[in-house]
Amino acid sequence: MSNMQLDTLRRIVQEINASTSLHESLDIMVNQVAEAMHVDVCSIYLLDERNQRYLLMASKGLNPEAVGHVSLHTSEGLVGLVGQREEIVNLDNAPKHERFMYLPETGEEIYNSFLGVPVMYRRKVMGVLVVQNKEPQDFSEAAESFLVTLCAQLSGVIAHAHAVGNIDVFRKPSNLPAYKTFQGVSGSGGIALGRAVILYPPADLAAVPDREADDISEELELLDAALNAVRQEIQALDEKMQDALMAEERALFSVFLRMLDENSLPAEIKAEIRDGNWAQGAVRIVIDNHIALFAQMEDDYLRERVSDLKDLGRRILAFLQEADASHRELTDESILIGEDISTAALVELPVDKIAAIVTTEGAMNSHMVIVARALGIPTVVGVTELPINTLDDVEMIVDAHQGRVFINPPRRLRTRYKEIQKEEEQLAKDLKQYETKDAITPDGVAVKLYVNTGLMIDVVRGVQRGAKGVGLYRSEIPFMLRDRFPGEEEQRAIYRQQLSHFANKPVVMRTLDIGADKDLPYFSIEEENSALGWRGIRFTLDHPEIFSSQIRAMLKASIGLNNLHILLPMITSVSEVEEALYLLDRDWTAVQEEEQVKITKPKIGIMVEVPSVLLQIEEFSELVDFFSVGSNDLTQYLLAVDRNNPRVANVYSHFHPAVLRALSRLVQECHKYDKPVSICGEMAGDPLAAVLLMAMGFNTLSMSSSNILRVRKAICHVPMSDAQEQLERVLKMSNPLMVKSWMEYYFKTHGLGDMVKSATRIVGA
Fold it and tell me: What SUPFAM superfamilies does this protein's entry cite (predicted)?
């Protein structure tokens, strides 16, 4: 496309994104396209899947009275042909084509040339965009490219409108949504059956108009009263969660209170009021300004700060409007639904009545998901196509193990999931006996099971469930839960808690691993491909002051305990390890001199996440004491799959033969050079995979506390000789489905059928 076409395309897309409704977006598109391409007609037809018809939704050039009324079956006309073929149809004389269907209501009989382009979203046809001219002629390749690009942009707008239930022209108001399955990303595992409760914000900032203040002094008094009420509300929420969350995990409330400091947001709002705006309008302007600033940064974590800002603004507005900002009525087994749910909105609700959480936005490592995980609430995020506004009180099933959401599930599915719930409850009771047992196979091979931690509740549960140490402490979580970098002493206190709870047991602390989906609210990292960018050791070596502060805090925290191991993340090259070791040695020497105490030098390891490390084990073995596989990242890098993306979620699998073969060879290489190797991540916590990892010879498996007892039971029931036989068999298989199916069959035929995850036992789920 030419620069002029690109500019036109950019302008149209910007106007569409700035529109406030789907109808407005479609009207903008047809008018702008008709003008830009100098065509007589531009029309958009959207697919009504239920009735299998294309409805004319907007048009420039056809009879305006036909819009919203004329439709074609998916097998009819040239529009139907475009949809069936899922490709462009370009004709110079459309009326002569065998699929041409004359619709007198549209007045299109005078148009000869036809160009139809399918609007596709995730391999599904959403609609058809059509341009027409009176003059018989083929449209150019440039015209085709222009419309294809535009349709790719439009598809997201239409999908979002479906997701929030704004396409209602196909549906009678009395109709409930039909049974349907939606795919998202698992944030916190588990299963829930219940009814949807849409979590609406307490007040609508967007609906507040500008209005001149009648009495500026009175508006300032109203604002002060609202601010005080919000401060008290947030302090009450903080106190309420003291028993459930540690202080570091409730840091968001401190962030809110700092935002409400007189020199922060209130000062800006009061300035707006003094300029003549009423209090509600002033709140809207200030919050919107901050949101616009953050939103422009295109940063995942800053987008979550946008959510927090909106939540805070709504709370202030709710008190200004004298609205009730307190609890929604929840019944038992309520499933919270929302576009995005803030941490504060979650914890002010009665947690014991929340069966699950589902959002159309959000990420696996958001504040809300971290807290939900700590509270044991099944959570699925990123369900972009969920029709939120049609779901209030609708029956749902949430399978957070698989990231699946079912609306209006049939009786057969409800019955099966209820059975699985009972099975999981019974399994949980049965697993209690394994809290005091060691993970030893029937033929006498011991396997060390460690716990992954980040929040203190992970530590408590890990101790309860008999973890032999901490295989991965995610040191970035305290950083994520603050609005600034924690100081050295602050870090020391946090690390000391972790090390003390596992005194006389190894605690592997990973240095700060931010980037990708783990950004800090106060340190923006803007990259087109953050998963392959400035993250992990790459970031900390570029900021040695941050790295050294953390290392010094870890060393001081280990004094007298001597159980600290340090793990370096996202290692790619030997030079990175050499530079990190230089800084570590320097800090170790300095801290001993400062503290006047001898500190046992911690063992140093590297994470095997980047595939290049697999080919340099010999060189790395000369520098480090141990290796630890980050199975989540290694799998996604080997398979070139973003595990946070629902579009390719079905491609991501740690049972992929390439992953299994790479891990098996890695263990052999590490042991060849007498280096212990552990593995952490979802794979280690999957009993089916854990048996294979045990057979490969991993020295340690580290996992979420919720999976320790499951894996321990599997190990106690599977002889090492059997595990090695299964490993030899699956390493010869060609696809992940074969591997997983075989391991499920093995478990079911060896008394471990209750260990197979839920969705794999449901035919047609």
Answer: Enzyme I of the PEP:sugar phosphotransferase system HPr-binding (sub)domain, GAF domain-like, Phosphoenolpyruvate/pyruvate domain, Phosphohistidine domain
Give per-residue pLDDT as tens, 149-177. 888 777 777 776 665 555 544 444 444 45
Tokens of 297: 């940064």
Q: Give me the amino acid identity at 679.
A: I
Active site members: 367, 680
Instruction: For residue 624, give the amino acid letter.
Output: V
The tens digit of pLDDT for each residue in 486-535 reads 889 989 999 999 999 999 999 999 998 875 555 555 455 454 444 555 56
DSSP assignment string, 567-593: EE-S---HHHHHHHHHHHHHHHHHHHH
Question: Is the C-alpha dihedral spanning 232, 233, 238, 243 positive or negative?
Answer: positive
Global confidence as pTM: 0.63
**What does the DSSP assignment read for 186-221?**
EEE--EEEEEEEE---SS-GGGPPP-B-S-HHHHHH
Two tokens at 413? 């599915």
Coil, helix or strand at residue 398:
strand
Q: In what order do the strands lie in the sheet with 71-73?
A: 71-73, 53-60, 41-48, 124-133, 113-121, 89-91
- CA–CA gap between residue 278 and residue 282 (Å, rounded): 6
Residue 336 CA, distance from chain mean position:
16
Cβ-count burial of 304 within 10 angstroms (0-12 exposed, 13-18 middle, 19+ buried)? buried
Domains of the chain: 3-163 (3.30.450.40), 180-199+328-409 (3.50.30.10), 205-320 (1.10.274.10), 426-757 (3.20.20.60)
CA atoms within 13 A on the CB side of 427: 23
